[in-house]
Amino acid sequence: MPIRVMTVFGTRPEAIKMAPVVRQLKARPEFDVKVVVTAQHREMLDQVLALFAIRPDYDLNIMAAGQTLYDVTAKALLGLRDVLREERPDTVLVHGDTTTTFVGALAAFYEQIDVGHVEAGLRTGNVYSPFPEEMNRRLTGTIARWHFAPTPTAAANLRAEGVAPERIFVTGNTVIDALQTAVRADTDAAPWADGLADGDRVVLVTTHRRENLGEPMRHIYRALRRLVTEVPRTHIVFPVHKNPAVRRVVHEELGDIPQVHLIEPLEYSPFAKLMARATLVLTDSGGIQEEAPGLGKPVLVLRDTTERPEAVAAGTVALVGTDEERVYTAAHRLLTDAAAYRQMAEAVNPYGDGTAARRIVDALAYIYGKTGEKPADWIANQP
Ligand code: UD1
Ligand code: UDP
Asked: Are 130 and 305 in contact (CB under 8 A)?
């Protein structure tokens, strides 16, 4: 009998980071895999499914414009109840910290099905930052039986909360597996390149965190406006998240500046190319904090906390929050002080080496009795 694994995800970053796991599971005959998407995101999710050629077995199609946490939670929970009752997998895999993640774990628990948590153990220590993600991952961690921690730091967080070491597997982060695929993908598309000359500096910006909606985002955008006005030959390329609450403020604050290129969310491969072309990245994203350091790009994180301390410790990521003056000063310095820039622009990769998905699937084979020994933990910076 094959091991019956169900993967549940719903947003762009979950899809990017689960795609390598789905592919590994499908390639191994000892597994039978079903892919369920809540489609908490629609277009942004579909872009990723197309790139990785993943056709979901179930699509709950729950997204509504301007949805609240209540809408996502209630619709996903009811949809997953029906799918889980029909399929009854041996285990449900969820990823990270979205509302789909938590609800996927909760639904599996209600059906008394084992939960495996991919990207387990990230913590800021503040349940309102990021909101609601810090609580989502804590709740998911409480429900999960198996914890796939991306880094030794994440594993240590779990052990400190009392999770038994035999339930924790350190695997690296599957985002690096996905990024390697995106970088390799055969695309010349660079829909962001219009209006840019070869020597121009590109500052890549993304914002979407709920706790930054409204005034904090306004402050960030005012800092950006000053930056491109005052530093010559500097352009901002800003793929704007589909959330209407983000779009409104972005267009109000930045819609009329020629050096600011507001574009639609990019497919993952062109986005990877854009990261590689950028001089500097300003973001409140989680995944981009993991990807850009590997490409040698300094990242200024537009948040007060991070659950990804590894690249901060390595010196390539700095937390700058959302205060206009602070964002402006930090970015201005990196664009005008070559020594300060060089110091931050070192390529480091504490998050993975492209083998995380295989390690997760090896762990599942071990857990469900198909192989004998607990797989060794991944160690950062190994060759
Ligand atoms: C969600 C996750 C967040 C993750 C982020 C990645 C929660 C609570 N939040 O936040 O953890 O970091 O995704 O981007 O789970 N929209 C579209 N089309 C899309 C996607 C979104 O139109 O393809 C619009 C819709 O109007 C939707 C809104 O964006 O209502 C917000 O989407 P939602 O998933 O609720 O929150 P995010 O801020 O995207
Ligand atoms: N990304 C993308 N196109 C874009 C912006 C981001 O493919 O226009 C990718 C990015 O490379 C990363 C992921 O989306 O892998 C991050 O998603 P997001 O910032 O929405 O979510 P978070 O990581 O904060 O949960």
From this structure: yes
- CATH number for region 201-345: 3.40.50.2000
Instruction: With beta carbons less than 8 A apart as the criterion, state whether 382 and 174 touch.
Output: no
The set of catalytic residues is 97, 119, 133, 208, 210, 241
Same fold, 3-173+352-367 and 201-345: yes
Evaluate: CB of 43 within 6 angstroms of ligand 1.
yes
Query: In this predicted model, what pLDDT tens digit does every residue of 275-292 receive, in sequence order?
Result: 999 999 999 999 999 999
- Which CATH code fits 3-173+352-367? 3.40.50.2000
Q: Where are the domains of the chain?
A: 3-173+352-367, 201-345
Closest by CA position to 350, among listed 151, 114, 131, 57 = 151
Q: List 268's β-bridge partners, or say none.
A: none
Angle made by CA atoms 338, 220, 16, in degrees to the nearest 5: 85
Ligand 1 centroid to residue 382 C-alpha, Å: 35
Question: Under a CB-based contact definition with an 8 Å cutoff, are residues 151 and 350 in contact?
Answer: yes
Distance 287 CA to ligand 2 centre (A): 6
Q: What is the pTM of this model?
A: 0.98
- Work out which ligand 2 atom sits closest to the CA atom of 283: 19
Interval between CA 164 and ligand 1 midpoint (Å)? 33
21-36 pLDDT, tens digit per residue, is 999 999 999 999 999 9
Cβ atoms of residues 50 and 75 within 8 Å? no
Nearest to 13 by CA among 54, 39, 48: 48
- Closest residue by Cα to atom 10, ligand 2, is 288
